[in-house]
């Protein structure tokens, strides 16, 4: 099975046990509908034609909200997964931008090539590759290293090659097709492209269209029925589920909400495989996203640590005061 790095299983390590105060915070699915929307994410199926920015603008108009942000731009002609964070959840967009992606691509060869040759080139282009962004790209044109996690040949018909590719964020599939065409000695270009995975989001799980979103919102507004809206909008925590997870004590939550680093004493459970510098997500015992940041220790070191900062805080996602203050300010 082809897996992106974020899809590989991680073991949960228990550092200590604690009880949670039921009077503070709430499970993401229990948020009142207005708060649920403002802390939500949509696993949107982008149609061909509009830009990612236009689609995001339409989402804001449909839901009558001021803020929304997409994760990972898709060209106008490209379809598929476009995660859109809503309202306060836009703070978490950065955590999705660097997540691995998967695409299904139709590549057009300029001359027919035997299947064995295509498979050979796929093997050569798996792993680290060098890419120069195209002239039309929005980033600086300089050679970059990108990781191709897997290339799977799906079908060949004459000059048409259908394949699946799992890759690092920032990989240009159009350029990948061009470069593979050069390596084959025939030339090639990208004919069609669809994104099927982006971090924790998958094409086969809770993917919705703009029409689905509009219908669900109208149903809530006109009939006070929240059910459909809660199906098409997911809690923002889903958008962080690809990151290694650390669960903390209630008494440690408010300090992190004020921007403090996470101290070792505040950790209850964590996932295995964390290395220093890795991005990690910090959660309450009720499953609320508190923040995300960078690990300052490896998993095994965090498990054994009694003191010290184990995660630096890059972005706070939970409002201060949601949990009782468990720290004292320096005088």
Automatic annotation (TrEMBL):
It catalyses: uridine(55) in tRNA = pseudouridine(55) in tRNA. The active site is at residue 75. One of its GO terms (biological process) is mRNA pseudouridine synthesis. Residues 1-56 form the Dyskerin-like domain. Keywords: Isomerase, tRNA processing. This is Probable tRNA pseudouridine synthase B. Its EC number is 5.4.99.25. The lineage of its organism: Archaea, Methanobacteriati, Methanobacteriota, Stenosarchaea group, Methanomicrobia. Residues 1-30 are annotated as: Disordered. InterPro entries: Dyskerin-like, PsdUridine_synth_cat_dom_sf, PsdUridine_synth_N, PUA, PUA-like_sf, PUA_sf, tRNA_PsdUridine_synth_B_fam, TruB_arch. It comes from Candidatus Methanoperedens nitratireducens.
